[in-house]
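Please predict the structure of the following assembly.
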Amino acid sequence: MISTEEFREYAHQMVDWMADYYKDIESYPVKSRVHPGDIISHLPLSAPEEPESIDAIFADFKKLILPGMAHWQSPGWMAYFPANSSYPSVLAEMLTSTLGAQCMLWETSPAAAELEERMMDWLKQAMGLPEHFTGVIQDTASTATLCALISAREMRSCFTINQHGFDPQNKYRIYCSAEAHSSVDKAVRIAGFGHNNLVKIPVDETLAMIPGKLDDAVREDIYRGFTPLAVIATLGTTGTMAIDPLKTIASITQLHNLWLHVDAAFAGSATILPEWRRIIEGLEYADSYVFNPHKWLFTNFDLSAYYVKERDILIRTFSILPEYLKTKVDQQVKNYRDWGIPLGRRFRALKLWFVLRNFGLEGIREIFRQQIRNIRDLAEKMESDPSLEILAPVNLNMICFRFNPGNIREKDLNDLNDRILRQVNAGGKIFLTHTKINGKYTIRLIAGQTSTKKRHLDQAWELLKQAAKSEMKHD
Amino acid sequence: MISTEEFREYAHQMVDWMADYYKDIESYPVKSRVHPGDIISHLPLSAPEEPESIDAIFADFKKLILPGMAHWQSPGWMAYFPANSSYPSVLAEMLTSTLGAQCMLWETSPAAAELEERMMDWLKQAMGLPEHFTGVIQDTASTATLCALISAREMRSCFTINQHGFDPQNKYRIYCSAEAHSSVDKAVRIAGFGHNNLVKIPVDETLAMIPGKLDDAVREDIYRGFTPLAVIATLGTTGTMAIDPLKTIASITQLHNLWLHVDAAFAGSATILPEWRRIIEGLEYADSYVFNPHKWLFTNFDLSAYYVKERDILIRTFSILPEYLKTKVDQQVKNYRDWGIPLGRRFRALKLWFVLRNFGLEGIREIFRQQIRNIRDLAEKMESDPSLEILAPVNLNMICFRFNPGNIREKDLNDLNDRILRQVNAGGKIFLTHTKINGKYTIRLIAGQTSTKKRHLDQAWELLKQAAKSEMKHD
């Protein structure tokens, strides 16, 4: 291995590359142009027996790896949901990797445990979450949703499934909207409920859950002898950023005594804006809540903020205490290993501390408001274009649309829009992805990357119009 | 947020701090001396509204956070299992956090997917794992073991539990030794089997599973109408580094058609040494295998290497494909989101690439052999000390022992050794933890940190003898 002084020298080299990368990021094609197998075919079949220099490895990184990366930190990233980084976050990650602490217990890193507790309180206040919530960092919303469903399972079964396994008397049912994230489907399977017991509630024309249909489904299930267990409400669906009516859903979960989990993975960050707090009305009735600072809060992936109403349920569901993990202070501290699935935990709170302090809450609000305004401006332009249809309500910083010149049969529109999307992405300036709404191929455009500004949206609009024009000509 | 050039400047400052930290790491007390509440009481109750400078945040990091960290990268870290970093690994983590890629799909970062595939092949060869294994990176061994049990559940139930939930006809049983890691207990609960259906098989005097007892337990369960499902064999238990006899266990799992999962979280790295390959004899019969490069392969936490015999079972167990995740190349590439629990994935393969190339396999073997030799030398010294008992076979780089001057009642020995451990840890030069063996309080000493050398073990031995002397005087 290299010496400490060699490490210093190489790390300085990396830093210059890192700063240059951000400076020049718009010169990289956002979506990688490599084809399957292009990268792996250049990688040796075996690890080297003898040491290789950092110079050689770093040169290969630039030559082989970099062209095969999608550039998530480019302002042209308008695909999926963003996974935002930012300068203060990267600085913190440098320290985290240097400390290399494994933060499973308070004793293995007291500062990490206590900073995590305080950061979860900072976020709770900043986002206007109910005072009685307790927070813990999870890796992703998928894991948080799994934790929620297992907690619900255990609370309802008086912790007997953890102890004895499933009781055939109780056929539990879980409810979410037809637009909920696939992680709900996955969690329902992992936790042993079975996918057939996940009831997908129909959505209205805004693609939000219809609470009346939820109530109907629960009542019917009770009548049929099922045990309704939990509802997952989504704030900001992945497909179209639809927002389930939380308050009405909460009244139904209260009525039937169901666990209410709220998945606000992307949209949750928006409640830092008082004008967006309305989407969490009713959250005080929720049993668990998750949103991802790694999506839209400038904090490196991975960092999900998971909040629960009763932390004792969470801890009782997941705690295990073998002798080798006992410490003298177990009664006085928070040992976050008992607050989720994996035992081992990285020091994630540090980057959140750097981000919240260096941006300041007001700094974050400013960027959010600008991004939301930029998207509304773009939506207005789109609305005035007769060859374009907006296919879902424009919420926050996302638009769902398709080109429809009017003279093309419905069944050919999907193909047209797929070609437009591919042409735009091939250009490398921006990267968009798609979804389907009622069978219609829908282009999603999300402007939430840390550095996405108005000019990037203007550029996106020009590129889309050009691509549409050239593809429509072919038809 | 700061500008790119300010980022460059601060990142250079961080680098100098990082190199200095490693240079001076032995001057920090390995185990933090803070008390519960010391850190959080200095953290403001709310996030700042206005931006704060990186200077201010970094100063607070040094003043408030650093004294509250346990220094996992200190050569005096002899506690738990190590979570090793190394210079090439930290350099790679700097790049990873800068790219900030979310590697859920091939398309969201082709190079990450293809590098991961090749790195898992490199490790497979380097460690002498069966050729037919396919690897994937998981965050931790806890998660990998959970994946294994869910895969076993689905294969055995013909994927019907994923679909319909548990069938009361089948009461599945899982088997592991009484010394297996607590993550097995946790996974059995999460997957819905119930803790009562985890059968703990007795261990022999080396604290390894007694295969005959496993066979008895399986036969008895079959007789009683249970459905034996899976066995977890442990190579290198957390308590004492005991090694279950894999080959004999495999013959039993073959006989009864049980899923065999092998948890080699720590000891798995040792098979890079041909002289330690014997511990994985029989691995060709295993259905799944996990070991942690983040423990003893100089690669920053988190990075677990999970291998399976039949990748189709893994993928079928965990795959979900909503419209917004479909890509044109799904049939030609590996989309690792379907190979585990969370959807989102960091670019973890990069640090492994940096480590394996910069150390070289031969470089890693040299360090391992030296650490094993150092521990054997220390064990010899301990054996010749009449006031000390070694309580478990010395495997790899761990010793389990207690002081026993001979004139103290058995029941007071636990208290004596607890006091010795606390005194040594309070000194700050080294950090050790404990376990219990047959009720005996046992001090664990593991020399596996990247930079732990002979002199650190010599120092540890002197400190232990001093502490023992002073504590025995008090009795």
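The radius of gyration of chain B is 24 Å. Residues 360-474 of chain B form a domain with the Aspartate Aminotransferase, domain 1 fold (CATH 3.90.1150.170).
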